[in-house]
Amino acid sequence: MPQNIIAANWKMNNDEYASKTLAYDFLKLLDKRNNPEVLKLLCVPFPFLSQIENMCKGNESVKIGAQNCSSFQKGAYTGEVSASMLKSLSIEYVIIGHSERRELFYEDKNTLFDKVNLAIANNITPIFCCGESLKERKVNNHLNHVLSQLKETVFNLTKNDFSKIVIAYEPIWAIGSGKTASNKDIQEMHRAIRESIKAHFGYGIANKISILYGGSVKPINAKEIFDLEDVNGGLIGGASLDSGDFFDIVNSIS
Ligand code: PGA
User: Over the stretch 166-224, which tens digit does the pLDDT of each residue have?
Assistant: First the structure.
């Protein structure tokens, strides 16, 4: 069975004080109700990784992730943060290939593949994002587009390395827009991804990989999305900036 994961993607929001308050408030809520079977991931901005990681130490089912890492190992790359630096902070997860990174920072398949490999080499689990634009969906090319994104990157990993990743399907047009894909469309995509993993790596791995959905998940729609057969949790942007909303979303998965 894939692990159920609810990941917060705080993006570039909040200062140090607001970030610590958000983590504190969320942890307080978890003290009242916490399903330890569900992994709660807080993917926070680089400067706050250590502090938030320290705050979460008492709760085994809460982990910290980064939102990016460098595609280079080390050296003269001003401003970059390497996977090994993250490892030295005991960070266990990193989001790779978010559509904002692909679009705004021109990250291509080679860059993403290098990042995934460096994360895995440092024992950090990549949360690999894929998703189609509205244009791709309108011309009915969405399945093909998303499966190609996987084939040109993570499907080139070894079987052993691939078994270590998490996949997040995020239709670009649903991110931060208040629009979610229909439940039927989400399940169709997640099933297609799982079937494709089965064809490439076999049944065992396909049934073990967590596939998260992201794109305007809110407390009001979280349960119906997480109840879908091939959905194993969510990657939550906007709603993760409110501790109460994020807590409600976390409690929507069973
Ligand atoms: P959203 O963002 O929940 O605000 O749509 C999701 C994401 O970008 O990961």
Answer: 999 999 999 988 888 899 999 999 999 999 999 999 999 999 999 999 999 999 999 99
Substitution site in 128, 217, 218, 252 for ligand 1 pocket (most atoms within 8 Å of beta carbon) = 217
Tell which atom from ligand 1 comes closest to the C-alpha of 217. 3
From the alpha carbon of 129, which atom of ligand 1 is closest? 9
Could you tell me the fold of the domain covering 5-250? Answer: TIM Barrel (3.20.20)
CA 230 centroid distance within chain: 16
Q: Which residues, at least 6 apart from 204, have a Cβ–Cβ distance to it below 8 Å? A: none
- Residues assigned a catalytic role: 98, 170
Backbone angles phi, psi at 197, to 5 degrees: -65, -40
Q: Which residues pair with 5 in a beta bridge?
A: 39, 233
Domain ranges for the chain: 5-250
DSSP secondary structure code for residue 229 in this structure? T
